[in-house]
Amino acid sequence: MRGRRILDSVQSPHLRKPPVFRVIIAQASVTCVLFVGLFAFSILNQSATTTATSALLGGLICLVPNAYLVFRAFSHSGARAAQKIVQEFYRGEAGKFVLTCCGFALVFALVRPLDAVALFGAFVLVQAVNWFTPLLLRRRT
Length: 141
Hints:
The protein is mainly α. 72% of the residues lie in helices and 0% in strands. The chain has six helices and no strands.
């Protein structure tokens, strides 16, 4: 029993969890940079911060569900947990869909004034970070 516990605790270098959290960090960075840039622009032009706030909400509507999926799907590892991993991916993807729908519903119901172009633009821009996932997940050797 003791030997098995030792073998289970030893992780092979090629069995490590993938560094998917880099994607979440990149999405959070894009959201923050977009918000700060638009907020600074609105202050310099002495205009309302509606665009900046809407962009922040759009980024968060994308970021929060993606973070949920990553934490849910990558909470297990190893060949023994393969079925559990698949189940968590399905649950995570369903939860991501529900969180995204609820995020948009809440923003459209509660936020006034709202810049819909900034909201959807930021959502799409933060979602586009996923296109660069292969670059973000490349292992450094």
